[in-house]
Specification:
single chain; 486 residues; alpha/beta; Lysozyme; nine-stranded mixed beta sheet; two-stranded antiparallel ribbon; 20 helices; 15% strand
C-alpha cells in the first residue's frame, strides 16, 4: 500500500530545513572548522612528551655547569681553566659531544639557585651530598670522600671529643656540608657555637681563625691541604665527620643524571679520578710548617725584586711567569748569590755548561739567569712530543730540566716497556728512580741517573710553589703579589 502525505515506506520523512537556516549552519561550520583544527593540534602538542634534560643538552649542543672558583674545584693556571671538578665535567661534556660552558657562583646558595632556575644543567662545585640537600636536588654517586676538619691556631689545646667543643667559637661557610654537620650536632644535643659566613671561601675562614676572631674553622680536608702552606701558624685539629662529594641536578627526569652517573662510575673504575686527585692534591703534603713560613717570608721580601724579570722572560718564551718563579724558588729561594756544593750557581742555579750554551757570562746576574733558565726550559719543552697533553708535557719538561733530557727519555722508554703510559707524568715519575738500579739502567741509552728520585721531588715542589703563586693571585693575604700578577 502506497503511503501518502509525509509518511514514507520506512516512516515519516524528515522535516526539511528552510534554505536560510541551512546557509547559516554551513557558515557556522565553516567558521568553527579552523578552531576545531587548532584545538586538535593543541591536544596533540599537549600529549607530546616534553624533551628530556639530556635531549635539551644535546639539542643545545652545550652543557652548562655552575661551579665556584676555588683551588679545590675550578681555577685558572698557565694553561687556562683547570681543577678537579672542571676536568671531570669537561670530560663528561666531551663524551656527550657538546661544548662545556662554566658559569660562576659567588656562594653555595647561588649555585643551587642557578641550578633550580634552570640556568645550569649541573652543579659541580665540591658539593657535599647531604640528607637536607637531597630533599630538593638529585645527586650523582660520590666521586670523592673527604673529612670535615677543625683548624686551629698552633699552640692552643686540641679538642679530643665533641664535648670539648662546648662554648668554643667555630666559623663555617654558609650553605656548606660542614654547616649542616654542625646543625646536626646541635640537634643531637651537642653544645656547639658557630657562625656561618655567606659567600666566602675556605681561605677567608682560615684568616678569621688566624687573626683570632674564632677558635676554629670547620673546613673540608681538601681545602685545608690546599691552603695550609699559606697559614703556617694554623694546624689541623679534630676530625668532625666525613662528607661524600658529588654533582647536583635539579628535579625532573633523570636522563642527564643517569648519564653522568655512568660516566663517573667509569672514571672511578679506570683510575681517572684517582689520577686527578694525585694531580691536584698528591703533592700537597710535602710542605711543612718551616718551609711554609720561609716561602711566605720570601714571597714578601725577595720576589718583588725579580717579578718583572720573570714576567719578561715568560712573555718572551711563552710560559706562565709564576711557573718560572716557582722554578727559581726551588732552585735558589730567589737568592741571586746561591751556590750549590756541585758548583751550580745563581738564581736559576745554572751549570757552567748551561750558562755557556745560553750565552750567560755571569751566572750571578739575576736577570740573565732568569732569562737563560726560561730559554733552556723552552728548548727542552720543544723537544717533548707535541702530542703529549698538558700538564704532563710541562712536568716532563721540568723534570728533564733537572735530570737531563736523555734520562727523561730513558724513563719514558722504560715506562712503555713496563706497560705504562710514556706520555703521562704520573706513570713516568714512578720509573725515574729506577734509573739508579743497574738491572734497569744497563738497558737504557743514557745509563745511570743519580737524580731520578730527586727530579720527582723537584717537580713536586715546583708544582706546590706554582699552585701557591696561582692561588695567591686571589688571596686576601698577599695583595702585593696580586698587584704584581695584574
Amino acid at each position: 500500500m502506497v503511503g501518502s502525505g509525509n509518511t514514507g515506506l520506512y516512516g515519516p520523512k524528515p522535516t526539511e530545513e528552510p534554505p536560510a537556516m541551512s546557509a547559516l549552519i554551513r557558515q557556522i561550520r565553516y567558521l568553527l572548522a579552523p578552531i576545531a583544527v587548532l584545538g586538535l593540534l593543541a591536544m596533540m602538542v599537549a600529549m607530546r612528551p616534553l624533551p628530556s634534560t639530556m635531549e635539551r643538552v644535546l639539542t643545545r649542543g652545550e652543557l652548562i655547569v655552575v661551579s665556584r672558583q676555588s683551588p679545590t674545584t675550578w681555577y685558572k693556571d698557565q694553561h687556562g681553566d683547570t681543577g678537579l671538578d672542571y676536568e671531570l665535567v669537561r670530560g663528561f661534556a666531551d663524551e656527550l659531544g657538546v661544548t662545556l660552558k662554566i658559569i660562576s657562583a659567588d656562594s653555595i646558595a647561588e649555585a643551587y639557585e642557578l641550578l633550580d632556575s634552570g640556568d645550569a644543567d649541573v652543579a659541580a662545585a665540591g658539593l657535599a651530598i647531604t640528607a637536607q640537600r637531597s630533599l630538593d636536588f638529585r645527586f650523582s654517586s660520590a666521586y670523592q670522600n673527604i673529612q670535615d676538619v677543625l683548624i686551629q691556631r698552633q699552640g692552643e689545646s686540641r679538642p679530643n671529643t665533641l664535648e670539648d667543643l662546648a662554648e668554643r667559637r667555630i666559623v663555617v661557610l654558609e650553605g656548606s656540608g660542614q654547616e649542616e654537620q654542625l646543625r646536626q650536632l646541635r640537634a643531637k644535643g651537642f653544645n656547639v657555637v658557630y657562625e656561618s659566613v655567606n659567600g666566602s671561601s675556605a681561605e677567608r675562614l682560615l684568616t678569621l681563625v688566624d687573626e683570632g676572631y674564632f677558635d676554629f674553622a670547620l673546613v673540608d680536608s681538601n681545602s685545608w691541604s690546599i691552603h695550609r702552606a699559606l697559614f703556617p701558624e694554623l694546624r689541623r685539629g679534630m676530625d668532625v665527620g666525613e662528607q661524600s662529594i658529588g654533582w647536583a641536578f635539579a628535579g625532573g627526569d633523570d636522563t642527564l643524571r643517569l648519564s653522568a652517573e655512568r660516566y663517573l662510575t667509569r672514571k672511578k673504575a679506570d683510575g681517572t679520578v684517582a689520577k686527578l686527585e694525585d694531580r691536584f692534591f698528591g703533592h700537597l703534603n710535602q710542605f711543612n710548617i718551616y718551609s711554609a713560613r720561609s716561602f711566605l717570608q720570601h714571597l714578601d721580601d725577595r720576589l718583588p725584586q725579580y717579578a718583572d724579570a720573570f714576567r719578561e722572560a715568560a712573555k718572551e718564551y711563552n710560559f706562565d711567569w709564576r711557573l718560572l718563579a716557582a722554578m727559581g724558588y726551588q732552585e735558589s729561594l730567589w737568592n741571586a748569590d746561591a751556590v750549590s756544593p756541585t758548583g751550580v750557581r745563581g738564581l736559576m742555579m745554572l751549570t757552567n755548561h748551561t750558562a755557556s750554551e745560553m750565552g750567560v757570562a755571569d751566572r750571578t746576574d739575576p736577570m740573565a739567569s732568569i732569562r737563560a733558565g726560561a730559554a733552556y726550559l723552552r728548548k727542552i719543552y720543544d723537544r717533548i712530543p707535541a702530542r703529549i697533553p698538558e700538564q704532563d708535557r710541562t712536568w716532563l719538561a721540568i723534570a728533564a730540566y733537572n735530570v737531563g733530557f736523555g734520562h727523561m727519555e730513558d724513563a719514558r722508554v722504560l715506562t712503555q716497556k713496563q706497560g705504562g703510559n710514556p706520555d703521562s707524568w704520573q706513570d713516568v715519575k714512578k720509573r725515574l728512580p729506577l734509573l739508579r738500579n743497574a738491572s734497569f739502567y744497563r738497558a737504557t741509552r743514557h745509563g745511570y741517573a743519580r737524580g731520578g728520585m730527586q727530579s720527582v721531588i723537584y717537580v713536586r715542589h715546583i708544582r706546590r710553589y706554582y699552585d701557591l703563586l696561582v692561588w695567591a693571585n686571589n688571596s686576601e693575604r698577599h695583595s702585593q703579589l696580586v698587584a704584581l700578577a695584574d
